[in-house]
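Backbone shape codes:
===
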Amino acid sequence: MERQVRVSVIMGVYNGEKTLNAAIQSIVDQTMTDWELIICNDCSTDRTGELLREWMGREPRIRCLENASNMRLAASLNRCIEAAEGKYIARMDDDDISYPERLWLEADFLDRHPEYGFVSGQIDGFDGKRLIPDYWHRKEKPEKKDFLSGSQFVHPAVMFRRECLEEMGGYRTGKSTRRMEDYDLFMRLYASGYKGYNIQKPLMRYTISTEKDKYRFRIDEAKVRWQGYCRLGLMPWGADSPAASGADSQEAAAGAQNAKRVIRTVYGRDSNLKLQQLERYRGMRPQHSGEGTAHGLSDISCGQRVAGAAVGRTEEIPAGSRRCADQK
């Protein structure tokens, strides 16, 4: 019987010649040796392909895939997942540096905590000139309501159980989830009963980028937030949501305001009408994970109608779907 690799590290790369070598070296230097690194070259036009071939020639644990056309990150990562043989699947970006104990710490955590579907950790930020310790600190045990303020996990620092990604069908590849594929995935995982944990120590040096803040990406993020909030039971109840109530009422109220800003971004001139419709449902408990559709509010638009597949379907979670050991 062929031995299963403990951890498959997956990476998508496009024109990464300037930073790729250091990123790969940081995986080679891990204290845990039972890993494979699968890299998908997304039609790079620089020396990326040449560098990857050199690495494969001297490190048998590295495998490379080549896209026939530029498919972008989510689709490239899905190809890596299909090729992966590991019990656990860890993310890595071509411009970040994993600290030597990262893979061991995450795999050991998942071994000891079957109640968690995935794990990430803290990071040190790097802006190209200086290191910023404990950059973008994340809560140790995020809850559903925490997603109202944004993504709760650093994507390139995450390690998943294979079955989590398989149940989700990997990353969504629609236009609206572009550059938000991680946020979308994390919310879908929580909506399906999985939960994640953040190790409270830096696991990598993370390269800070401001490109995501461009306006067109903020519009896409609003669409992803809307779908995710609906799945998590955070809409249309706002501060009255069953997932955002009790002792955290002040935090929940702030989250409700954030949710309303998302609605205004998504619906534009129709936002006041949509907010009025949502008010009618305040205090109602969701019947299933697709409450946005159940209330006739699935026509998300921003100047045009957005297909459900592009922003994520709101289907019911089928009975008997897999969970971590103690999930209900």
